[in-house]
Amino acid sequence: PALIMGMKLLNQSDPCVETTVLDTGELVLCTSGEVHLDRCIEDLKTRFSKIEVKVSPPLVSFRETIIVPPKLDKVNEAIVEDYTDATHSKSHTVLTAGKTTTFTIEAYPLSEDFVNFISENRNALKCLVNSTLFAGSTNHTPAPIDEHTDFKIEEFKLFLEEYLEGIPVDNCIEKIICFGPNQIGPNILVNNVSRYDRPVIWPGSDSENLDVTCLWDYESSVIRGFDLAVSSGPLCEEPMAATLFVLQEWKATWASDSAESLGPPIAGQIVSAVKEGCRQAFLKQPCRLMIAMYKCEIQATAEVLGRVYGVLAKRQGRVISEELKEGSGTFVIAAVLPVAESLGFAEEIRKKTSGFAMPQLVFSHWETLQEDPFWVPTTEEELAHFGELG
Prior knowledge:
Helices cover 32% and strands 23% of the residues. By secondary structure, the protein is an alpha+beta fold. The model is unreliable at 83-87 and 135-139 (pLDDT under 50).
């Protein structure tokens, strides 16, 4: 088709462009900003595909995460939890469709900075994945690593230990099964199953003579289920972030000598069960959305400062600093702005200031929204203040 060929040509001509195909068959164009997107669409229509293209409004990605249980609700009233309620347990137990395997999974929140930490150390994480013994594979030989790579992985492990402090799993860092999604994402799966000693993922660990059980043959299915869960969360089907899942229990009724005869159907059932278990364990914790934030630098004169602040406030931006350039009457304003609110921001600020303010937007970080997506007003005071929908 002309559109697909045109997108391939666009991708070849512009290395900053990425193209993906959704399950619905829609083609997604990933660009580095609003102006870049407009230029790419125009080139696609006039130069590369030379056909009329239907374009949806720009899409902005979110992330789903969990947080430490808050002490106050939206109206600053203390949250009292009923610990006698049987549903209070934060772990979730799930059975496979054939009732042969049981999993108990629990989710724990990680620091908001963990997302940025993984993003900054992605190369070290990729080296770790390449040097790790893959689950379910007895013939795979991990890739050799040189001294420099080994140092990077050790440094990564050292900093990772700080983020895992507070997780109620003994020697948690040595029990990591994998990261996700795609083995390099900001989510972690940890093994805390008794009587299941799996190989350690870190290089140099003595795992060669480890006598693993028959569960090792199906761990790749567990990893696949975890990967599917963190790739598409339960809130709005967006990827999860800064979440650690602990596999607390893994019971199999089939014996080790009959595991091979059960074959692929068991593997598929394990994938589905682990995926559902992770999603339900996630929902048992306080859920939140994470939004992408731009770092915004604006140069403006004193006469239009008020209008600049007005536009930022309208789009939920926050001013971090304001400095006067020496020897000039120009102010440099540093602010953060949600990416979802940035569409049309540059054009609006130029119109409001008659061209006397020039913004520059650069991706900064992911930030957690503190609003509970499941909160609904119940009292008369809450209904009067927030309305029926909150």
